Structure formats: C-alpha cells, structure tokens
Amino acid sequence: MGDEEFADYIASRLAGLRGVAAVSLGGSRASGTSQLDSDWDFAVYYRGRFDPDDLSALGWPGEVSAIGGWGGGVFNGGAWLRVEGRPVDVHYRDLDDVGHRIAEAREGRFSVERLMFHLAGIPTYVVVAELALHRVLRGSLPRPDYPEKLRITASQRWSADARLTLGYARGGHAARGHVTETAGLIATAAAQAAHGVLAERGEWITNEKELLDRAGLPSVDAVVSGLAADPKRLTSAVDAAERVLGLSPSAHENGRGLA
Length: 259
Known about the structure:
It is elongated, with a radius of gyration of 21 Å. It has helices spanning 3-15, 27-31, 52-56, 95-106, 126-133, 148-173, 179-201, 211-215, 221-224, 231-244, and strands at residues 20-26, 40-46, 62-64, 78-83, 86-94, 112-113, 122-123, 135-138. By secondary structure, it is an alpha+beta fold. Helix 6 (148-173) runs antiparallel to helix 7 (179-201) and helix 6 packs antiparallel against helix 10. The strands form two sheets. A six-stranded mixed beta sheet has the order 3-4-5-2-1-8, sandwiched between helices. Strands 6-7 form a two-stranded antiparallel sheet.
C-alpha cells in the first residue's frame, strides 16, 4: 500500500467514527519532510461526544487512551497504534475547544503547558498551528493566519521566559558548579528563545524537533558541549548562551533571590 493510499485508508476509517467531523494529517508526512521510518500523525476533530472505544473497535493493535487520558489540557488524549506495520498516532481534537483556542490566539492570549519530551512545554496555540499546517483529509477545517496580537505577546513572553531561565541558571546552579542543572536550563532557555524568534516572525511550529534550526539558533550546541563542574566556566557558558540567543541580561534577572 503506497503512502497516499495508506493515508486515505486511515482517514476513511477515522472519519467513519461517531462524532468525527474532520480528519487531518500532520507532522512530517504533511510537510513532505518524512523519512522511511517516520510515523503517521492523524487528528480526529469531533463535535460533542466522541468515544475512544469506537477507535479501539477498529482492531488496530496499540494503546488507545480515554478522553483526558494524557493529562488533559491541549493534549487531551489519543492513541499509539500499528496499522499495516506502520506507526500511527491519533490525537483527539474537540472542535469546541479548537474554536476557543482560535479566539484566544486572535486576542494574543495563550498559556504554556507541561508536555512530556518538550523542554519548554507546549503553547496552547499549538492547536491553531495544527490547523494552519496540517493537511485536511476528510471534512473541512479553518486554516488560520498567524494573528498579529499573538505575534507580539508570544514573542515577548517567550523571550522574557528565556531571560529568566538563564538568570536562574547563573545564580541558582552555575555559581554552585552544578553541570547538569546548568546545561538543562540553557537548553530550556534556547527552546524558549527559539519560540520567541518564530513568534516574532509569525511562523507556526507544532513541536521542538526543528525548533532551534528554524530559529537559526543551533550554535547554542557549542555552549553546552564540554561543560565542567567549575563555577567560573559554567557562568561563562550562561553568558555565552545569552549572547548566542540574543538575550540581554538585566539586574533583576541575574538569579539573585531565586536560589
């Protein structure tokens, strides 16, 4: 079964589930950057009631979560499956929640939620980004532009978070010779700063896999390589990260009082 045929097959089965109004394909398969071993990311958009048991009844092996089974918030549940030997992820998307996220993004409002495998967490406007970047296979979905208000608030918020993160890295860990903690906070600040760069450009992104490259910040790799448990060297690394990430330190963000 070829890729197009496979995508059409999955979309047809998902679209037939009760309550599903639309099905989209996301990730590298939608952007045309997939590799042979890339997984398949689908989203089911439903209105009202959606029962994950209906998804389980399709008979595809894997794990199917309940609504809210992934902790609630933006990622309120989904499934990890194997279909015809291929890895398939299915995300649940409540259209009422999607409409709310679109309205919030237009007003420049969002929050950041903790999500496994994401250094900086996930902005709630990722739901809107998915609409802009995904390929709709069944039904119809809006394709929003990047709101001007969100461009301003998101770039400011992410940049401020990155500065604060580095401030804490300097005073809370580098000064004590904590290598792992300092490296982790530099990496987190890099992801935050990269989100800020893309927001300022008005560019959507849905995960951190290409975040630093997209933002033009991969040189931060050189900052975290070769760190040693020496306070002076670690503090110099934090200073270097500020320069590489284009962040300006300020007196109230130097980590004092945060330890």
